[in-house]
Design a protein that fits this description.
Elements lengths: L9 E2 L3 E2 L13 H18 L6 H5 L1 E12 L8 E11 L3 E10 L5 E13 L4 E2 L4 H13 L21
Antiparallel strand pairs: 1-4, 2-4, 3-6, 4-5, 5-6, 6-7
Length: 165
């Protein structure tokens, strides 16, 4: 069964920054941004057909191969946040997506995350093709988001750019 994706970004449920996630600088520790992004991804992947029972029922899962996070504005304890996801591309074994983490009430952007996920056969512990139904769900999501522009921050790399002297 294919999920109804609408025609925009997929939004997570509202999440709350927990008190014990705050570091000695008085803001959300960088590790917990990944917890929030991962929670939002899990919600989307569940809608794609790869929820908590997927591993047990089908012997497969998805692993993160690469991720690039940009921290743009601090989050504090108690703040409500929402994650969005845009599927940038996918092929027979991989999914490339871009996420934003936003203040749920005020809608300002706190962080972005770009990620490549791999579909993995857990018995072999090797990358494997998506099952046809999951591939169809990915195609449906890609189709629903086809009119979205590629995010400006997608494809960034880390480097120190030297000014010409």
């Amino acid at each position: 069964m294919t999920a109804d994706w609408g025609d925009g970004l997929v939004r997570s449920a509202v999440m709350t920054v927990k008190d014990d996630w705050i570091d000695y600088n008085g803001h959300l520790n960088m590790a917990y941004y990944n917890v929030l992004f991962d929670t939002a991804v899990d919600q989307v992947f569940e809608r794609l057909g790869m929820g908590p029972g997927y591993l047990k029922e089908r012997g497969a899962s998805f692993f993160t191969a690469e991720v690039h996070v940009c921290y743009l504005r601090e989050l504090s304890a108690g703040m409500p946040v929402v994650g969005t996801l845009q599927l940038l591309d996918f092929d027979s074994k991989r999914a490339h997506f871009f996420q934003e983490l936003r203040h749920a009430d005020e809608d300002w952007l706190s962080a972005t995350s770009e990620q490549m996920s791999l579909h993995v056969d857990m018995a072999a512990r090797k990358v494997a093709p998506w099952p046809e139904d999951i591939r169809a769900n990915l195609a449906a999501l890609a189709g629903a988001q086809a009119a979205l522009r590629r995010p400006e921050r997608a494809g960034r790399r880390i480097e120190i750019v030297k000014k010409a002297t």
